[in-house]
Structure of ABC transporter related:
Amino acid sequence: MTAMLNVRDLRAYYGQVQALHGLEFDLQEGSLTTLLGANGAGKTTTLRAICNMVRSTGSIEFQGTKLSSRSTESIVRLGIAHVPQGRGTFTTLTVHENLELGAISRKDRKAIPGDIERMYAHFPVLKQRHTQQAGTLSGGEQQMLAVARALMLRPRLMLLDEPSFGLAPLVVRDLFKILGKINREDKVTILVVEQNAQLALELADKAYVIETGRIVMSGKADDIANNEDVRKSYLGY
Ligand code: ATP
């Protein structure tokens, strides 16, 4: 596998506050990677820096293209979809309309209905609710819609910020199963930021641990899950 995304010496700032301190990591094409860390460690900021939504220095290369001078919109057009924390669906539009909007920047209009059907196959509950306003969906359904809408861009890389946030454990399991399927079958490379370390490590093949804006550990998800420090700090046993 070749690296799809290379991050080197990434530093990010909110005014005078420095949130990332020389972060370095790679994402292999086709991988499902999790970035674990406590509250305030810099997980959200890392995803925002990749999308150029926060002031940063250092180098981020996606498939050989430098992202630093590009707008968020042009980064999306390169094939990077970002599902922010708190979902971000259009609450007054229907499920179907949200999916159509997800594809708004695509030129291959003819392929869109087929892709919507594929999303309904991944997320049958969205098909059942396709005429319902997004704002009336449950939290889990809204999270599924947010993921499906991001996938309507046909991204090469999907960045997910705490998809498990606020969801019941069974719903999280369902969602994570679908993410695994999307990674394997649709060949979407995934970076998922999580506080639910246990589930994230079951899902991912590679993991990074971030503490106060720096990567402090990396490896295969299985090895990270068996690491004593990780077990104590993030898994609670
Ligand atoms: P959480 O899991 O709580 O979302 P996180 O790992 O995603 O945490 P970030 O949100 O990336 O952490 O925050 C990293 C650091 O940057 C924290 O110290 C936070 O207080 C600071 N920070 C984040 N957003 C801002 C902001 N808009 N203004 C100032 N400081 C910020």
Observations:
- Residues 169-185 form the longest helix (17 residues).
- DSSP finds ten helices and ten strands in the chain.
